[in-house]
Amino acid sequence: MKNLKTFLDNAITPYHTVQFIREKLQNAGFKSAKEESLKSGGAYYFETAKASIAAFRLPKNYSEKSAFRLLSGHTDFPALRLTPNPDKYNKEQHLLHPEIYGSPILSTWFDRDLLLAGMLIGDSLTPTLFNDSALCKIPNLAIHLNKKNETQSINAQQNLDAIATFKPKVSQYLQEKHLPLNEKLLSFDAWLIDSSSANISEEGYISSGRLDNLLSCAAALNALINTESHSEIVTGFFLFNHEEIGSNSREGANGNFAYRTLKNIHESLGGKNPEETFSRSFLISLDAAHAEPPNYSGVIEENHAPQLGNGIVLKTNAKKRYATDVYSEAFFKKIISNSKINLQHFVNRNDIPAGSTLGPILSANLGIPTVDIGVPLLSMHSIRETAHYKDYTDLEEISKSLFRSELHWIE
Length: 411
Fold this sequence. Notes:
Shape: globular
Strand order of the largest sheet: 1-2-3-14-4-15-19-17-18
CATH architecture of the largest domain: 3-Layer(aba) Sandwich
Helix content: 10-25%
CATH superfamily of the largest domain: Zn peptidases
Distance between the termini: 39 Å
Structural class: alpha/beta
Number of domains: 2
Strand content: 25-35%
Largest sheet: 9 strands, mixed
Order of helices and strands: HHEEEEEEEEEEHEEEHEHHEEEHEHEEEH
């Protein structure tokens, strides 16, 4: 539990998430593919934009019958991101104006102790991560000033400005506090971040920000570090930025990061026709799933209503919002058949549209058979989400089972 809490508390932006994962991989003996030539039996990691990361263990015996066994997840999460010129001064108050990133539950961001974190670049062109201690807060409207005496609607343009506890403009503040003397700030990517630490109760309940999708990132990382190289199969994971906004970027799943990385590995090991190898490979797309909310009956399909602490969720959708199909479901269940892991099933109600995951994007772009699974959550996209530690450990065990499996694709 302590290791998971440490990860959740440190992975406060996509940049910090990748930094934490990179350091863990390096400590486990993984080498940067940018600095080392790929060799059979080696362990390597790849990065793009310091916000997406992939890591792999290469087999000693790569042949025309070899394949990839992969996990995917994402390093981003719904949040509030400062605009390039966020500063407003209203009487004595310094306000910071954000853009909405993804689809956060906006009401949960009010009256929270918020910090600034992200990445900046000065004229040395060296990216610098920062996690600032300055407190910010988005104030709620007092109930006495709300004439209808009920929860007011939120105007996303007018009501989300955060009070800053520092007076200089953000650009000046970041330059003076986080860059060497005389270095000029050229750009910054700054986020408002919940300052509260993760909590894991003795009963196993996890309360934290960013569980969607940091639980998947942690499970993939720990599974790869704690398994050995396969005899003939490449095992590894991709953790992408920008899933919450559609994945259409150079570091997103709909960019070329995945294809060029897998093609590089395949050709470095002497392989030809990578698409043929992809077709007999297998991907498990890891992303959070909805648990049945106890106070809102009828929003979950009644025969597919996951519960916290009752197992990993297998997600299917007739419109292919999830990548699971009849082949990948059977292959996945066979992989975990020797474990004691319980599976729950989720489908959306016909009258409530489904979200989606990286699974359909990667499966379509790469031609890799894919199944979509995840840890059940309450309050998905809230500033604080709730999960269960047992479900997280099940996800980690499933990931290890994938990397250790000797099964060959069935189609």
